[in-house]
Amino acid sequence: MIYVIATIDVLDSKGDEFAKLAEPCIAATRNEDGCDSYVLHRATDDESRFVFVERWRDRDALDAHFAQPHLVDFRNGGAPMIKAKTVEIIDPANVDIL
C-alpha cells in the first residue's frame, strides 16, 4: 500500500477555478487500476489550500497514474495557479518528498 499526501497552495483568487479543474481528473483517477482512494480536501481556514489524500495498491500503480493523460492535463492547466506544493509518497519503508 502506498499513500500520497499532496498539499497545494494556489493563488488567492484561483481556488474555485483550481477546484473545478480538478473534478475531471479526480473522477478519472478513481477509475484507475490500483487506485484505492483519491480524495481532494479544501482547507476551511484558507480556501487557497488543497490537500489530496491518496491510497494506491503499489508504486507501479502510482507511477502509471503519473503518466495518465487526465493527470497531465490537470497538472498543465493548474500549474499557473500554484504558488507552492509538497508531495509526500509514503510506503511502509520510506517517505519520499517530491
Number of helices: 3
The poorly predicted ranges are none
Largest sheet: 5 strands, antiparallel
Oligomer: single chain
Order of strands across the main sheet: 2-3-1-4-5
The class by helix and strand makeup works out as alpha+beta
Order of helices and strands: EHEEHHEE
Give the secondary structure arrangement, pairings included.
Elements: E1 2-10, H1 15-29, E2 35-42, E3 49-56, H2 59-66, H3 69-78, E4 82-91, E5 94-97
Features:
five-stranded antiparallel beta sheet; 3 helices; alpha+beta; about 100 residues; about 35% helix; about 40% strand; single chain
Q: Could you explain how this protein is built, in words?
A:
- With 98 residues, the protein is an alpha+beta fold.
- It contains three helices and five strands, in the order βαββααββ.
- It has a five-stranded antiparallel β-sheet.
- α1 (15-29) packs antiparallel against α3.
- It starts with a strand and ends with a strand.
Question: Quick summary of this structure?
Answer:
The protein has helices at 15-29, 59-66, 69-78, and strands spanning 2-10, 35-42, 49-56, 82-91, 94-97. The chain is α+β, with helices and mostly antiparallel strands. The protein is globular, with a radius of gyration of 13 Å.
